[in-house]
Amino acid sequence: MRVDTPVYDVVGVGFGPSNLSLAIALAEHNATAATPLTARFLERQPRFGWHRGMLLDDATMQVSFLKDLVTLRNPTSEFSFVAYLHSRGRLVDFVNHKSLFPLRVEFHDYFEWCAAKMAEQVLYGQEVAAVNPVVVDGAVAYFDVVSRPTDGGEPKTVRARNLVLATGLRPNLPDGVSAGERIWHNSTLLRDIDNVPEAAKRFVVVGAGQSAAEATAFLHTRFGDAEVCSVFSRFGYSPADDSAFANRVFDPAAVDEYYLAPEEAKRKIMGYHANTNYSVVDIDLIDDLYKRMYQEKVLGKQRLRMFNVSRPVDVADLGDRVRVTVESMTSGERTVLEADVVVYATGYRGDDSLALLGDLAGECARDDQGRLQVSRDYRVHTSADIAAGIYVQGGATEHSHGITSSLLSNNAVRSGEILDAILRGDRTPVPAAELALSTLG
């Protein structure tokens, strides 16, 4: 090791909402700790950003503002959404608004407000290239994390006693489909839309979830003379179940129950409650789209077309347009659409953050289905000769911790659990029930 290689108690890879929440938990701990923990976070983006491509002006959050970065862990935190509103001079206005669900652009601004307070802990524009073991007395005591500036330059190395991987999700496109000038994933919608001329004649949106419905409504509103065709395999958009009892699947205590449940019970829970999050749409947006479609039928000028129980079977980029062949799944009838742009709102896939570990990934335990074995406090099970800690946040723990793994609902609590595990400094898994009591009590 070079003599100037800095050593940190915690190095986080990725700085989205998950590791931002952890950074805040660390800062609050350090404010009163006799021995503060040191931390450094590495983020590939040039600045903080969370789903920037879908920060539509009228889109609202689908979780309560109380499920911010801190409140469920520390209700008195100065980093709460309420504190943010006060600092922006909008607290009374928000109260008068009588809504639990802020605008998405507002919640993103809240994230940026918090991230700015953590700026000294973060290196932006850094792509992590490798994680190398550092052996002391026969055991891996540290990890050397090597990153390269995204704009070129010399690599940097930081040394970690504990590594927290939160590399987020990657846009998912169907097999055989590649993004291009006229074929997009919805994650780049706002980035790319200004390149489309106002005279565009037709858009095709593929997908049945919230993002697909939002993209459909946005394009239909923005391009007042264009046809917008929504293609999905269901009979209609399915409403999200956000009722009070169903929402209990997002409770912190539900993570304990899920973690301890047998595999068969876990499969049933995911099946029962997939409609709280996956391929579902807020009922108000469903009603709005149906109202638009019906109104156009009455007026005799239909711009919003729904190709339900259908799928795209061929998408050809012709340079100046895209030719989409849509097939009915019931009749087999095919319709050819010439479109200016095709938007795939086909979800995200988990990033394989363990690939960064190289040979170390082979020291991480997996179950008989090849899934990562993770303790209740999100520490990866490793071979006995790895003493340094590896923690994961995000979709890599959905099989073990449940549906909230890649969502905001338990972000604050999860960060507190990871911090507590790091402070314990041992490799002994804590019983789930005990962990819940220590976190929530």
UniProtKB/TrEMBL annotation:
Q: Which family does it belong to?
A: Belongs to the lysine N(6)-hydroxylase/L-ornithine N(5)-oxygenase family.
Q: Name one GO molecular function term.
A: L-lysine 6-monooxygenase (NADPH) activity
Cofactor names from the entry are:
FAD
Q: Which organism is it from?
A: Actinokineospora alba
Q: Name one Pfam family in it.
A: Lys_Orn_oxgnase
Q: Does the keyword Ubl conjugation apply?
A: no
- Quote the catalytic activity from the record: L-lysine + NADPH + O2 = N(6)-hydroxy-L-lysine + NADP(+) + H2O
PANTHER family attached here?
L-ORNITHINE N(5)-MONOOXYGENASE (PTHR42802:SF1), MONOOXYGENASE (PTHR42802)
Keyword annotations: FAD, Flavoprotein, Monooxygenase, NADP, Oxidoreductase
Enzyme Commission no? 1.14.13.59
Enzyme class per UniProt? oxidoreductase
Q: In which pathway does it act?
A: Siderophore biosynthesis
**Name this polypeptide is given:** L-lysine N6-monooxygenase MbtG
